[in-house]
TrEMBL record:
Pfam family, one: FMN_bind_2
Species: Flavobacterium polysaccharolyticum
Annotated protein name in UniProt: FMN-binding negative transcriptional regulator
């Protein structure tokens, strides 16, 4: 991923916090000579050997899983809130641009089986059921319902490289930076407002 130095996100804690908060990504690999991409949640974790991984699952009907058997390299792409930045918000002439955060995770994928799949599903459900009034628990699902787990391929991606870009108008002076935040807040777009809030954190 091409990233100018000024926009490189290098803080490991910030990157990992981002991955945990924006775990719905795009898994990309090459299967049968073609590029394939699937939109799925992939959770950051550690395996039994203490190595950092992403874990997830996809349908056995998905051809993308065929290549997993060869422990091939994959790319997982994650993005956060993003917003159009109008150059009319500057105090000088310039071109419009886009603010965003993106993380690319590279690694070797392997298929997991049995209890490892159930453990992965349990962690996923527990994370997203926290705010539910009546949380669903995998351990409490019936045997009939859990048979659906046989229809998925569980996988782990052992991470080999992470690239991260955080483009949040870092190249602007304080006056224009603050004005961008104010204009984003006026848009009433949840994504634009989220970008404005992130910009506030970066420059106080």
């Amino acid at each position: 991923m091409y990233t100018p130095d000024i926009y490189q996100l290098e803080n490991p804690n910030s990157i990992r916090a981002f991955l945990k908060e924006n775990a719905f990504g795009i898994l990309i690999n090459q299967t049968n000579g073609k590029l394939w991409a699937t939109h799925i949640p992939m959770e950051l974790d550690y395996n039994s050997e203490g190595k950092e991984i992403l874990h997830g699952h996809l349908s056995k009907e998905n051809p993308q899983g065929i290549a997993f058997e060869d422990n091939t390299e994959v790319l997982a792409v994650f993005t956060g809130p993003h917003a159009y930045i109008s150059s009319s918000w500057y105090d000088h002439e310039n071109v419009p641009t886009w603010n965003y955060t993106a993380v690319h995770v590279y690694g070797k994928v392997k298929i997991i089986h049995g209890e490892a799949v159930i453990d992965s599903l349990t962690k996923l459900v527990d994370k997203y059921e926290q705010a539910s009034a009546c949380p669903v628990k995998v351990s409490e699902l019936s045997k009939a319902t859990m048979r659906q787990a046989k229809g998925v391929i569980g996988f782990e991606i052992e991470i080999t490289q992470i690239e991260a870009t955080q483009k949040m108008s870092q190249n602007r002076d304080d006056h224009n930076y603050k004005n961008i935040i104010q204009e984003l807040a006026k848009t009433q777009s949840p994504s634009a407002i989220a970008v404005a809030e992130e910009m506030k954190k970066l420059r106080k």
